[in-house]
Amino acid sequence: MTLPKHIAIIMDGNGRWAQLKGRPRTFGHVKGTRVAKKIITACSKKGIKNLTLYAFSTENWFRPQAEVSLLMTILRRYLKRETENLIKENIRFSVIGDLSRVPKDVAETIGKSIEATSKCTGLNLVFALSYGSRQEITEAVRSIAARVEAGELSADEIDESVINSSLSTYPTPDPDLIIRTSGEQRLSNFLMWQAAYSEFYFTDILWPNFTESHLDEALHAFSGRQRRFGKVSANDNLEKFPN
Ligand code: FPP
């Protein structure tokens, strides 16, 4: 079975899952975190090289203060409790997104986890946190413009590789597979440049109900996809095309 080198997941449906149980939305985030932990371990065991989890978007700052605050607490607690396990599992942790908006104690905990796992050589685990693709692309354009202004680069030299290496995801390869749970079928400002040739897998399962078997189903679907990256496959008979 062909495994994706990079899986990116939009973990959606925590709030609906909790509401269906008559519980506050935050209960869904707590359960969602336990699921994230299991899926991280499962990806690591399967030998997936890169996993990006959309943990908090730039738009999520507009949620009620209590929910935002609980999500930050969850993240901090997760990292404090899990960093030792990440090291044991040889998982290297990093973050993409605008950490200047994240509370100082959370940013410090993130920094410590990044440092503590920096020598790990297994799964590259990335949390997209306070992340938005438009903001990321805007930042990249700004940094390239500054290099042009400083005379380090000419406008003609700006190509896809210059843009690629100016994005926060660099040098992680583009996601081969993007999974979104909960029945929604959109990208929601996630890895828009990087998703140019990603395969999408949408499932109605709400994130707190997502299990390793659902991950296996997604991997199975991925291995059956023909990825042509805009080209034709070697077996395509062009002469059969109708006039
Ligand atoms: C989407 O569900 C989920 C989020 C906005 C947050 C995702 C965060 C977690 C799973 C917890 C933190 C993660 C880690 C890895 C520590 P939603 O609230 O939009 O659900 P809804 O669409 O049903 O309202």
TrEMBL record:
<feature type="binding site">
    <location>
        <position position="61"/>
    </location>
    <ligand>
        <name>substrate</name>
    </ligand>
</feature>
<dbReference type="InterPro" id="IPR036424">
    <property type="entry name" value="UPP_synth-like_sf"/>
</dbReference>
<feature type="binding site">
    <location>
        <position position="199"/>
    </location>
    <ligand>
        <name>Mg(2+)</name>
    </ligand>
</feature>
<dbReference type="Pfam" id="PF01255">
    <property type="entry name" value="Prenyltransf"/>
</dbReference>
<feature type="binding site">
    <location>
        <position position="29"/>
    </location>
    <ligand>
        <name>substrate</name>
    </ligand>
</feature>
<feature type="binding site">
    <location>
        <begin position="13"/>
        <end position="16"/>
    </location>
    <ligand>
        <name>substrate</name>
    </ligand>
</feature>
<keyword id="KW-0808">Transferase</keyword>
<comment type="function">
    <text>Catalyzes the condensation of isopentenyl diphosphate (IPP) with allylic pyrophosphates generating different type of terpenoids.</text>
</comment>
<dbReference type="InterPro" id="IPR001441">
    <property type="entry name" value="UPP_synth-like"/>
</dbReference>
<feature type="binding site">
    <location>
        <position position="63"/>
    </location>
    <ligand>
        <name>substrate</name>
    </ligand>
</feature>
<dbReference type="InterPro" id="IPR018520">
    <property type="entry name" value="UPP_synth-like_CS"/>
</dbReference>
<feature type="binding site">
    <location>
        <position position="12"/>
    </location>
    <ligand>
        <name>Mg(2+)</name>
    </ligand>
</feature>
<feature type="active site" description="Proton acceptor">
    <location>
        <position position="60"/>
    </location>
</feature>
<feature type="binding site">
    <location>
        <position position="180"/>
    </location>
    <ligand>
        <name>substrate</name>
    </ligand>
</feature>
<feature type="binding site">
    <location>
        <position position="17"/>
    </location>
    <ligand>
        <name>substrate</name>
    </ligand>
</feature>
<dbReference type="GO" id="GO:0016740">
    <property type="term" value="F:transferase activity"/>
</dbReference>
<feature type="binding site">
    <location>
        <position position="25"/>
    </location>
    <ligand>
        <name>substrate</name>
    </ligand>
</feature>
<keyword id="KW-0479">Metal-binding</keyword>
<comment type="subunit">
    <text>Homodimer.</text>
</comment>
<feature type="binding site">
    <location>
        <begin position="186"/>
        <end position="188"/>
    </location>
    <ligand>
        <name>substrate</name>
    </ligand>
</feature>
<keyword id="KW-0460">Magnesium</keyword>
<feature type="active site">
    <location>
        <position position="12"/>
    </location>
</feature>
<comment type="similarity">
    <text>Belongs to the UPP synthase family.</text>
</comment>
<protein>
    <recommendedName>
        <fullName>Isoprenyl transferase</fullName>
        <ecNumber>2.5.1.-</ecNumber>
    </recommendedName>
</protein>
<feature type="binding site">
    <location>
        <begin position="57"/>
        <end position="59"/>
    </location>
    <ligand>
        <name>substrate</name>
    </ligand>
</feature>
